[in-house]
Amino acid sequence: MKPIAPAYKTENIKYAVRDILLVADQAKAAGKKLLYLNIGDPILFDFKTPEFVTDAITASLKRGETGYAPSSGTAPALAAIRRDAERRGIKNVQDIYITSGGSEAIELALTSLLNPGDNLLVPTPGYPLYTAVLSKLEAEANPYYLNEEDGWQIDVEDVRRKINDRTKGIVVINPNNPTGAVLSRKVAQELVDLAAERNLVIFSDEIYDKLILDGQDHVSLAALSKDAACVTFNGLSKVYMGPGLRMGWGIVSGQEAVVGDYYRAIQKLTRARLCAPHPFMAAIAPALDGENAHLPAIVEKLRRRRDITSEMLNSIPGISCVKPEGAFYAFPRLERITDTDEAWCARLIREMGVVTVPGSGFGQKPGTKHFRIVFLPDENTLKEAYSKIGEMGAN
Ligand SMILES: Cc1ncc(COP(=O)(O)O)c(C=O)c1O
Prior knowledge:
By secondary structure, this protein is an alpha/beta fold. It folds into two domains: 8-48 and 294-392, Aspartate Aminotransferase, domain 1, CATH 3.90.1150; 51-289, Type I PLP-dependent aspartate aminotransferase-like (Major domain) (Aspartate Aminotransferase, domain 2). Helix content is 37%, strand content 16%. The chain is built from twelve helices and 15 strands. The protein has helices spanning 16-29, 51-62, 75-87, 101-111, 129-136, 156-162, 185-197, 256-272, 284-289, 295-314, 341-352, 379-392; strands at 35-36, 93-100, 119-124, 140-147, 153-154, 167-173, 201-205, 230-235, 247-253, 319-320, 329-330, 333-334, 354-355, 357-358, 371-374. The strands form four sheets. Strands 2-9-8-7-6-3-4-5 form an eight-stranded mixed β-sheet, with helices on both faces. Strands 11-15-14 form a three-stranded antiparallel β-sheet. The mean pLDDT is 95. The structure holds pyridoxal-5'-phosphate. Pyridoxal-5'-phosphate binds at residues 40, 101-103, 127, 173, 177, 205, 207, 235, 237, 243, 248.
């Protein structure tokens, strides 16, 4: 047989978070002890899925809920998501669909909107799934830059300048992966007003919404205007410490006359793929309706790890780190290296055994270099890793 040629649409798809593991595996095979600060999976560290979540799933399995579920999700889970949306002030909810992880919710929403040649405003830096899906759809990522000098807030004027006649929507990640920034209410409102003025769909990725480290308000963008056409993404992966449960969802809100055709297209795609995993949906109502008693201890642990991260990294010459306010990521800047950030991160693995992800995997302003840290590991591991980064130096 001849070699099978993969589709050209896959050529530009990169996922730096996992790609860096190739370098890490080589270093490990060569006998290096590795400290992993690269993957945002709390279960790999000292975090656990709360028992009320796992109990609900076990009970569903015992009830025999192993057949197909309705394509959008089970009625109790959908009702719980609707109640949660109301509590957040999201008005005009038109449709909710439950998916296999937040990732599938994102993929279905983008696929239902974009034609080849259309573009979507994507935060830069930002979570790389969006650009990967755009590549698959032959649509363009239209990067807007987050402002490092302003705590990685969105520069609304930059967004305005980048809108053109093929721009269909804007992605906002709040709190952001990889920067850990939490969007201020003022900027959020400006953005929602701009989107309404220019007829853009807002994709608001709020998967880290309850991991807020300094007690600020988390603002759901869809709550700021009942007319904004918005898809809000969330799930059980991060706040409920269950990324392997693969439970996510999308909430479509706005005026029926505006978003009706669009959410019906999403529904067609949800029907075509039948349903998300049925027994896991049983965890959604107890999670969203419960008291979140697991959260204060988690947030406290993350706050201490964030403080160590920001203090130790900022004390290394050549590194500056905006203090993250949410999620469990930091995006420190390499101010004076002459190499690429990929080369610097590879050297950090080979020489020091510290695994981080190069900033270029998330997009960054031309001329700047960064790396992404996951501060889920325990305090001692983080201190050891940052000492080693200091020892190698950021030159
Ligand atoms: C911003 C953001 N959105 C979506 C996802 C994907 O979520 P899920 O694991 O539920 O598919 C992630 C995972 O890291 C993320 O960081």
